[in-house]
Design goal:
By secondary structure, the chain is mostly helical. The protein contains four helices and no strands. Helix 1 (about 1-15) runs antiparallel to helix 4 and helix 3 runs antiparallel to helix 4 (about 75-110).
Amino acid sequence: MHVTRLEQMLNTTAGEAKTVKSKVMGALVTETEDMVKDAADDAVRDAALISAGQRVEHFEIATYGAVRRWAELLGEKAHASLLDQTIKEEGHADHLLTEISNRVNPYAQKAA
């Protein structure tokens, strides 16, 4: 859904949207794979996965925030509003991950 919104905005504004692979996201995935592989306990693995998910959410929130600001500077109020909606959705996902981590992390701490 978020990618579709971005593509629609770019198609409207620039005429086309090209996909560019994020080096940061690739590095986050690689780091997550390493943490999961190194986790000796299921609870520790779960905590690592939640942490990785939150890092992705934070990266996305920061990126959408920058793009929203660019939209505001360009006078694209409708696009800025859509991006604000996306940021709120990402923030909600981060909040849910925090709630899950509050349940999982005590078990991971005991296992460590």
